[in-house]
User: What shape does this take?
Amino acid sequence: MKEFGLQVFSVRSEMETVEATRATFKALREMGYTQIQTAGCAIPYEQYGRIAREEGLEIVGTHENFQMMEEDFEQAVANHRLLGTTNMGIGGYFLKEQTVEAWEDFIQRANVVAKKCGEIGMKFTYHHHSHEFVKLENGKRAMDMLVEGLDPENTSFVLDTYWLQHGGADIYEWLEKLAGRVDILHLKDMLRLPHKDENYGYHHMTEVGNGNLNWKKICEVAQKVGIKYYVVEQDACLGGDVMWSMKQSADFMKNL
Assistant: This one.
């Protein structure tokens, strides 16, 4: 692991204008981040991609709109060309009611998008949460169905350490299980809270190294299975100072 990145959903509140986006990218680069993964763009894609390059940040993937990928694939491709990435991804798929039929439908539709991606040298990526580990009426979990059903040639998974742990899954087992099918690994730590939080229960996302996950072992296994991009993500910060939190994670990663 020679470098690491950030899923900039973590700092979305700091990127609402062109000026703020540049200032945030500059600050992240100074912290040691050299790569980013997007989560939508509050400014035009052309400006976003150009500013990232000018500030020394490589865009390694996206979390974008699945509906656009289905209904206007050419525009989705154009957006990704402007960003300079070949990983066209979504941040998850959420259903009001999880059923086998609904997940089968999504997998079929995702494979249509993935096939189009593959034909132009791109890849469709899927980022999971913990709801994919709920057992469905057929005894399987949605995550099992995704692994079995998504085309391995044209798709890849964005594994997330926090959501694996949150879903009761074994992080090391899933890294090995999906060896060769994961380009981006989300590094997200889990903190056990002393009291139940209204939104998060007893567990909360925290700075990498500030929680209870075994990062030395996670990174050893990740390197063994060939992870390309190590991307820090912290959806919410307990203290509220997101840039402080990003620096804590960056400092830990550099020492690690």
Q: What stands out?
A: The chain is about 40% helix and 20% strand.
